[in-house]
Design a protein that fits this description.
The complex is a heterodimer of chains A (about 260) and B (about 400). Chain A is an alpha/beta fold. Chain A is built from eleven helices and nine strands. The relative contact order of chain A is 0.18. The chains are: A alpha/beta (about 260), B alpha/beta (about 400).
């Protein structure tokens, strides 16, 4: 059973992102439990890619740390399968098209189903290419997440109409990374999406503070935070569990 | 909607943030490509700024020395800025101006595309920023300074392998941040649709000229056209007009570095497999997990783990053939052409010269090979000297 809906049953959703294998898979496993315990409603787990073009400096470095540590797609599937014995938090994978394609899309999605992965987020698969993996995703009950961006304008309705799971609303131009100011009229983007769909809209890119999260959650269904957490992991490495737990707790509190 | 497919290759595998920009570009291109004013302005720039048509030179000494097919060199190295890159850059920046853009950005490998972009940006009064891998900045230091001299800002890219692929990553990231006023002048027949088509169209002037020039001289088509392939823009330009002429063999020369069967090469057709990267589906050097492989070539311009989607399709259909050429073979050709014809070719183009040297003796004297000499070798002289162990007092 796809458990993505569970992510939106506890008020506004807090969705933390971490790169699997950064700095090692043991730490990733502990972080999954810790973030779930401290209020993460959905965990976005990044499968590292050699060339993450949608990522800013922070997550690029995390991907490099994970790959240098020998992280592979198979090891990540193994990790999620193991984590599933102790924890039923919804988990989505975030990665790039070639990681799925290169592994073999059929097997990739079958394994996702086996591990209880509820959704797949691929920033380099826009609306025009969504048929690339649509059949495999459907057959294995994995939601393919659609993006809307500040440049999407008239595309928002078209994208939202056929979106599933939730809509990933990109807060700003550019790549992932902490921003002190988010100036996009996200509220209007979400209103446009909501005029054609009932699925939740979550906002990501640039969010790091409880204040930003609180404001954005007032007109969205959830906030996605990546770089701010990855920075904590970059700083504390294998000792980051405590600090990430505190951060996740504070962020979830701010949007309740 | 076919989203620019060449067989199964091509497409638009890019973040949503960029989608409207590529759609806008496609619309503008479709509007202007047949516009008489646009065509006239581009033609005037080709003629009076870039120095087109470029010569089709009969390499008589080389032909006699090799003892087989007649060899003609298409002298793209004589274009302004020293390579074929100017053909595409003039077209794209003219288009960007029509689109109201005030700033251009570009990736560069050997620096030839960066220099061409900086040059045309200077001419047309556009702001210009170039992204170049740190490794390439070092091995092509002269081109870095040329770009600065032309008023461009050069960003050394320190992520990944610090070569062309990483320069493309960084330029794409920059484009998503400044999409409103900025045009990405992509330098090869790669990336998301419509770039492979636009770049091919602007470069196809090469094969149109070859055809006309050879008809005038020899009253026939060539038997083979040989060009080097990284992303594949000079090869696509040299092939395009001949695709429908099935008697003409089309041969792309890939960089095999230290050998196509070693760890250190950039021979995508020989060693790559189907994948999705840099906005397109095509062949890429990658590992079993879909991680893009770190590639290697002595030539910064061919040091790229992928190949343009139209080439991938020409390979699938068998219309074109792709052969690996090693560093050693390319360097030998670099020296050979310098000594034999008094022409110093770019190390990229030397890969094509190297294959012509293998091919010509196997062909008869009434057959014709055209080698696309995509760029001049001044930029490579220092690096080749180092490769040969020469002492340079710089």
């Amino acid at each position: 059973m796809n458990n993505l809906k569970k992510a939106f049953e506890n008020g506004k959703a807090f969705i933390p992102f971490i790169t699997a294998g950064d700095p090692d898979l043991e730490t990733t496993e502990k972080l999954i439990y810790a973030m779930a315990e401290n209020g993460a409603d959905l965990i976005e787990l990044g499968i590292p890619f050699s060339d993450p073009v949608a990522e800013g400096d922070t997550i690029q470095k995390a991907d490099m740390r994970a790959l240098s540590a020998g992280t592979t797609t198979d090891k990540i599937f193994g990790l999620v399968l193991k984590a599933r014995e102790k924890c039923d938090v919804p988990i989505a994978f975030m990665t790039y098209a070639n990681v799925v394609f290169g592994y073999g899309a059929d097997i990739f999605f079958e394994k996702c189903k086996k591990c209880g992965i509820c959704a797949l987020i691929l920033p380099d698969i826009p609306f025009e290419e969504k048929n690339e993996f649509a059949i495999q995703a459907k057959n294995n009950d994995v939601k393919l997440i659609s993006f809307i961006a500040p440049t999407s304008h008239e595309r928002i309705k078209m994208i939202s109409k056929s979106a599933e799971g939730f809509i990933y609303c990109v807060s700003s131009l550019g790549v992932t990374g902490v921003r002190s100011n988010i100036t996009t009229d996200i509220n209007s983007m979400i209103k446009l999406a909501k005029s054609v769909t009932d699925i939740p809209c979550c906002v990501g890119f640039g969010i790091s503070t409880p204040e930003q999260a609180k404001e954005i959650s007032s007109y969205s269904d959830g906030v996605i935070v990546g770089s701010a957490i990855v920075k904590i992991i970059e700083k504390y490495g294998t000792d980051s569990i405590k600090y990430v737990s505190e951060y996740v707790k504070e962020m979830k509190e701010s949007i309740k | 909607m076919n989203n620019g497919r060449f067989g199964i290759h091509g497409g638009q595998y890019i973040p949503e943030t960029l989608m409207n920009a590529v759609i806008e570009l496609e619309q503008a291109y479709n509007k202007y490509k047949n516009d008489p004013d646009f065509i006239a302005e581009l033609d005037d720039l080709y003629r009076n700024y870039a120095g087109r048509p470029s010569l089709l030179y009969y390499a008589e000494k080389m032909t006699k020395n090799l003892g087989g097919a007649k060899i003609y060199l298409k002298r793209e190295d004589l274009n302004h800025t020293g390579s074929h890159k100017i053909n595409n850059v003039l077209g794209q920046i003219l288009l960007a101006k029509r689109m109201g853009k005030t700033r251009v950005i570009a990736e560069t490998g050997a620096g030839q595309h960066g220099v061409a972009t900086a040059t045309v940006a200077a001419l047309m009064g556009m702001e210009c920023e170039i992204f170049m891998g740190m490794v390439d900045c070092e091995r092509q230091a002269l081109n870095v300074y040329r770009m600065k001299l032309l008023g461009a800002k050069v960003h050394p890219v320190t992520s990944g392998t610090m070569t062309l692929k990483d320069a493309v990553n960084e330029t794409m990231r920059e484009w998503t941040s400044h999409i409103e006023n900025t045009h990405y002048v992509l330098g090869s027949v790669m990336g998301p649709h419509p770039f492979p088509t636009i770049v091919r169209d602007f470069q196809s002037v090469i094969s149109r000229e070859i055809k006309a020039q050879l008809m005038e001289r020899e009253h026939k088509l060539p038997d083979a056209v040989v060009a080097c392939v990284g992303g594949g823009s000079n090869a696509m330009g040299a092939f395009y007009e001949f695709i429908k002429d099935e008697s003409v063999k089309l041969i792309g020369c890939e960089a095999a570095g230290k050998g196509a069967d070693t760890e250190q090469n950039a021979a995508t057709i020989a060693n790559g497999r189907l994948g999705i990267f840099h906005g397109m589906k095509s062949y890429f050097c990658q590992d079993k997990n879909g991680q893009i492989a770190p590639v290697y070539s002595i030539s910064a311009g061919l040091d790229y783990p992928g190949i343009g989607p139209e080439h991938a399709n020409l390979h699938d259909t068998g219309r074109a053939q792709y052969v690996p050429i090693t560093d050693d073979e390319a360097v030998e050709a670099f020296e050979y052409l310098s000594r034999t014809e008094g022409i110093i070719p770019a190390i990229e183009s030397s890969h094509a010269v190297a294959y012509a040297m293998k091919l010509a003796p196997k062909m008869s004297k009434d057959e014709i090979i055209v080698v696309n000499l995509s760029g001049r070798g001044d930029k490579d002289v220092a690096a080749i000297a180092r490769y040969k162990g020469e002492n340079l007092y710089e």
